[in-house]
């Protein structure tokens, strides 16, 4: 079968030539293309372009000038640009050995699956390429949590967090995918019941460069998991819960420093309003940003609403403390909970509301694969 190999890259220049050489050797005699979807801020695009000019098989480059949705968004752009029905996704760091690609293809050619997962945790697979025991433990725990959240859809998958898999593009609604960060396979499997089989593989050490896994990516994963399982409001609640805890901790600390509870509540509110906006911007409503105007305008709307909410909430807090004799921190917690639904509705319906559509005569659709970037073929 024809095959499109999608490789999302971020500053992976030193790996490109080795990756292409090994892919070519592994798939000698087959019809395939390689699509790099690149978000780099170094010379990786130039290295890919030079390698493409020398390659005996088709190599395409999509460089995204304004990356959205992280690695997952890059993979979706690859799906949209692919010329083949079957798309293989792999990392550009050679931790996913190209020599294993034929095994995934051979399994798919039987015709009874929608996705073939290269699994570190299936019998015969290994995760030795993970940097240390901590990353191994985090990976195992994340996998267990994910499978617990989707017991039916992930029943046949031991490694839903892998970035190495082969997908029948016709089996999924690519335009409905809303990826956040690294875990694009989770996004695919959680949205629709697919026929899954696995091929074990040995997760290798990086050929060159450094890992892109960060604490921020971990937060994005948890947000993605919450939104897939419970929807946007639950992710909003996750951010709101973090903000509420931070608010209470800051307020408690300031009170311990002998600041009166009212100014302490004001300072805590300002800090958490700004922090929460940034979390909403890059996690909960990331997919709505491009259609909702400028970031400065969104911040002004959000800050104004939260400021007005705080102006109302803090006098209520005073009434609860002075009139009802409720401890200050407990009273603050009660008022934060009461404000949650109003905050969600305002942000979903006002702050991130799409701008009024342009008149049809002025609209020009752009090709999804090249949106926000340049394409080299």
Can you tell me about this structure?
It is built from 11 helices and 8 strands. By secondary structure, it is an alpha/beta fold. It is elongated, with a radius of gyration of 24 Å.
Shape verdict: elongated
User: Widest sheet: strand order?
Assistant: 7-5-6-4-1-2-3-8
User: Strand-and-helix sequence, N→C?
Assistant: EHEHEHEHEHEHEHHHHHE
Distance between the termini: 22 Å
Mean pLDDT: 82
* Estimated structural class: alpha/beta
Helical stretch tally: 11
- Which band does the percent of strand residues land in? 5-15%
What is the oligomer described by this structure? single chain
What characterizes the major β-sheet?
A: 8 strands, mixed
* DSSP, total strands: 8
What's the alpha carbon Rg, rounded to whole Å? 24 Å
Low-confidence stretches: 357-377
The level of helicity is 40-55%
Give the SSE map.
Layout: E1 3-9, H1 16-26, E2 32-38, H2 44-54, E3 59-64, H3 70-81, E4 86-89, H4 101-108, E5 115-119, H5 133-149, E6 165-168, H6 184-191, E7 196-200, H7 215-230, H8 232-256, H9 261-284, H10 295-323, H11 328-351, E8 373-376
Parallel strand pairs: 1-2, 1-4, 2-3, 5-7
Antiparallel strand pairs: 3-8, 4-6, 5-6
Task: From the structure above, extract its key features.
8-stranded mixed sheet, 8 strands, 377 residues, 11 helices, alpha/beta, disordered C terminus
């Amino acid at each position: 079968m024809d095959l499109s190999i999608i490789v999302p890259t971020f500053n992976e220049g030193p790996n490109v030539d080795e990756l292409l050489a090994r892919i070519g050797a592994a798939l000698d005699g087959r019809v395939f293309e390689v699509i790099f979807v690149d978000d780099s801020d170094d010379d990786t695009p130039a290295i890919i372009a030079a390698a493409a000019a020398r390659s005996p098989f088709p190599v395409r480059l999509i460089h995204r000038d304004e990356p959205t949705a992280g690695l997952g968004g890059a993979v979706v752009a690859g799906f949209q640009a692919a010329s083949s029905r079957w798309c293989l996704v792999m990392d550009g760091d050679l931790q996913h050995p190209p020599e294993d690609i034929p095994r995934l293809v051979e399994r798919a050619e039987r015709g009874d699956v929608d996705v073939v997962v290269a699994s570190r945790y299936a019998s015969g697979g290994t995760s030795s390429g993970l940097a240390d025991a901590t990353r191994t433990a985090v990976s195992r725990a994340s996998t267990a949590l994910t499978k617990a959240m989707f017991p039916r859809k992930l029943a046949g998958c031991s490694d839903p967090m892998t970035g190495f898999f082969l997908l029948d593009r016709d089996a999924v609604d690519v335009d409905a995918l809303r990826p956040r960060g690294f875990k694009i396979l989770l996004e695919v499997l959680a949205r629709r019941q697919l026929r899954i089989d696995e091929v074990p593989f040995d997760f290798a050490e990086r050929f060159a460069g450094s890992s892109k896994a960060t604490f921020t990516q971990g937060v994005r994963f948890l947000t993605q998991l919450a939104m897939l399982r419970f929807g946007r409001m639950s992710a909003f609640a996750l951010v709101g819960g973090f903000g509420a805890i931070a608010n209470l901790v800051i307020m408690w600390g300031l009170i311990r420093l002998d600041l009166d509870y009212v100014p302490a509540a004001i300072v805590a509110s300002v800090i958490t309003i700004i922090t929460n906006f940034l979390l909403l911007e890059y996690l909960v409503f990331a997919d709505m940003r491009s259609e909702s105007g400028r970031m400065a305008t969104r911040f002004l709307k959000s800050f104004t609403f939260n400021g007005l909410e705080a102006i109302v909430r803090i006098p209520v807090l005073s009434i609860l403390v002075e009139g009802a004799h409720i401890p200050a921190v407990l009273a603050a917690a009660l008022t934060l909970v009461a404000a949650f639904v109003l905050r969600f509705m305002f942000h979903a319906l006002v702050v991130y509301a799409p701008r009024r559509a342009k008149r049809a005569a002025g609209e020009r659709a752009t090709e999804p694969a090249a949106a926000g970037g340049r394409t080299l073929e």
